[in-house]
Every structure is written in structure tokens, then in C-alpha cells.
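Step 1: inspect the first sequence and its C-alpha cells.
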Amino acid sequence: MSFLTLDHVTHHYFSASSYTKALKDISLSIKQGEFVALLGPSGCGKSTLLSIIAGIVEHTSGHVFLENTPIKPTDKAIGYMLQQDYLFPWKTILENVMIGPKIHRSTDPAIRTKAEMLLKQVGLTGISDDYPGSLSGGMRQRVALVRTLLNDPKILLLDEPFSALDYQTKLKLEDLVSTTLKAFNKTAILVTHDIGEAIAMADRIFVMEANPGMISKVFEVPIELRQEAPFTVRKHPKYQMLFDKVWEELEDKEGNPAE
């Protein structure tokens, strides 16, 4: 049964003199607990598609359903993690993490306990009273992950959350995020330009093409890779085989822009 469904979603950006067709006829379905990646060149509409799923951008036509219910902008079921962590520098780490419950005016005292537990689970023990300026980029993104998870969203949207990090930190966070989301049985959609990241983290990869943004092909990640942590996946023989297939699909679309 589909958990998230996009049914013929199309989106146009309008200006005073013209319009741009950003997305054309996007249809897909994602199961609960599944991790999928949207992969494609700049300008193919990956981030726009995430914004539509989040209810931030209203699509021109088509339908988006979460558990058979139309998505709304105020839906707490959606968690959004971006490339930048957007932590408030004047607030402590714990205060930053608890922004969501504060916005929703939750007074449950168990929320603070849960926040501290999540910080501990991602390796951030003893920093609740520190400020973001004292943390590394990787630590800040872990705080952003906890802030997102604290609201207990049904689905997480990850818009290139590791792209601003150094490679070693990026690999460590891939492992952490993948392990954490599996432990909580969270459904997730990752936007990335990185073929290796998509293969290492996702169950399925939706390759997109640009002008207009469309899904050109879907790759199923072999079960042998899905059972491993992202860092280990890169060492598996089937990793390179899938990498080459995805690369060829992207190259073919870049070489045939009129198709």
C-alpha cells in the first residue's frame, strides 16, 4: 500500500511575460519506511518537488497524498532537513532542538526528556547548554536532525543535507542518518547530485531529467546493498555495477537534451 503518492504532478513558474515548466507529469508512490533518492542535474526540479511534497509550494496540477489525505502546508507529519542547519545562534542547543514543540505550543514535560535522549543517540551528550557557534558543521547537522525527529514526522525530506560538509564528515553523517531513520522506521526522500550517496542510502533511486523536470528512470537498489551501512555499501561489488548504470542514464539524458 502506498504511503506517499504523487499523481501526475506538474508545476509552472509564471512571470509577467512568460512561464517556466519546472515539473511535468510526476507520478510515483513510496511505501512506509522506504528511503528513496531523487537524483539529477541542477534545474531538473528536485528541490521544487520536495517543496511541493512539504506543502510549501502549491503545484499547478496533479495531486499529492500522504496516507490517502491531501498534504497541507501546516502538516506536522512532514519533517524538512536542508543543506544549511539554520540553528539560531543566540539559543542553546536544547532550545534550538525544541523549536518545533514551542511553535506548536506543546507543554508536555516529556518532550525535553525525549530531546535529550535523541541528542545522546546521535552522539551529542553534554552539549544541551552550549551554543551553535561552538559546534562543528557535522555536529550542527546532527542537531538539525534531532530537531526534525523531535516532532515525530511521518516522512522526512532531506534536501542535500551533507553537501556543505567535508567528505569524511559527510560519510559519517550518511551512516548516522541512515541508521537513525531505520531505527525509527521513518520514510525519507533525499535530494542529491551525488550518485554514490544515492546508492549508499536509498532503497530506490528516481533519476530526473531537466527542461522540464521529469522522472526518466527508476533504479532498485539491490537488497545486498540496502542491508549494509552506507560506508560499507561503497565497498560492495554491486555498488560499482549500479553506479555505472545510473551514470550512463544521466550521461544519456545530458547528451540528448531535446528528448
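Step 2: inspect the second sequence and its C-alpha cells, then contrast the two.
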Amino acid sequence: MAHAEVGRSIPVPNVQALAQTCSGSDEQIPERYIRVEEAAEEVISGRDISSAIPIIDLNKLLDPQSSKEECAKLGSACNQWGFFQLINHGVPDEVIHNFRNGMAEFFKQSLEAKKMYSQVPAVLKGM
């Protein structure tokens, strides 16, 4: 089976159903969700600093003295990990708390309610 191309959306009809099928210790993750080019062993090798999620400092990105180094760090985080933690962003704790609560409430909804917000298969939405 061909694996998904990097950067493309993998259509998932129901994440909860996928999670339920993989909840047993002897269950396997369906092949279509496995990306051999980024095997877990290559990314997370232990509890040392090399396995920590990259942290990007927005203040350093905006500071001419450190922006070049932090920008390179951001590029590496995006290319190697696909995500990162952003610090010193200035978003108030209350906003973050409300966002997390909103997300938790969204995922508590029924599948039918969440389908109203579903993405068209194989289409990535840009910002």
C-alpha cells in the first residue's frame, strides 16, 4: 500500500473509530497512517534532550540580534518535527485556558455534530 505524501491530508472518516480499533494491546495501526520516512525510533530515542519537543521563542524571532539563529531553529523544527512549542508569544493564560476548554467541549460532541465542521477529503486549508 502506498503511504501518504508528506504535506498532504490523510482523509480520516472517524478518529474515534480509529482510536477504538487501536486500543487493544495486540491491535496494529492501519498501514495508511504509518509514515516509514519518519519512524518513531528516529524521532524519539529516549528521555534525553534530543527527544524534547522543539521550543521556539517569539521574542528571539523578533530580536535582530538573535532572529537568524531562532529562525534556523524554527525551520529545523518544522522540517524535522512538523510542530513546535512557541513561548513568549504574549497570548494571555485566560485565552489559552478558554481555547483548551473549547477544544475539549468540541471533542465531547457526537460524531454527527462534529461532521458539520469536517474537511473536504484531500484538501488542506491554508491560513
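Step 3: confirm your contrast with the notes below.
The mean pLDDT is 75. The CA atoms of residues 38 and 86 lie 23 Å apart.
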